[in-house]
Amino acid sequence: MKPRYLSYSEVGQLGAKAVAAEDTKRRGTIEDVREACGDAEEVLRNYLRVACHNIGAANTIALLLDEAERLQPQGPAIANAAFANLGIPPSGGSSGRN
Q1: Residues 6+ apart with CB under 8 A from 39
Q2: What pLDDT shows up at residue 11?
Q3: Rounded distance between C-alpha atoms, residue 78 and residue 67, angstroms
Q4: For the chain, give me the number of helices (H) and strands (E)?
Q5: Domain ranges of the chain
Q6: Which residues of 52-77 are buried (b: 16+ CB within 10 A; e: fewer)?
Q7: Whole-number pLDDT of residue 17
Q8: Percent of the chain whose predicted confidence (pLDDT) is above 70
Q9: Vertex 14 angle, CA 46 and 76, to 5°
Q10: What's the pLDDT at 72?
Q11: Residue 3, pLDDT score
Q12: Model confidence over 26-76: pLDDT tens digits?
């Protein structure tokens, strides 16, 4: 299944929700983004496009995720570590690839 790319508006809405959830320490918001996107790597990119503008540490995390793309198959572990730095737990599910 080809991933559905989000519009800037959708990314903004989902990213704002995810940032708000991180700020209030609620859990599971990344699942909303994953559902809307359908592909775990695209979720990371879409989330960080917004998060980089809202969370200072996200710039470092974005660099980690760029490196994660070059370090397959270790990339998902690096991505999970990056989300842990934002206080968002890993989903525990598959990476969305078949």
Answers
A1: 3, 96, 97
A2: 63
A3: 9
A4: 5, 0
A5: 8-85
A6: beebeebeebbebbeebeeeeeebbe
A7: 64
A8: 0
A9: 40
A10: 60
A11: 57
A12: 444 555 555 555 556 666 666 666 655 555 555 556 666 666 666 666 566
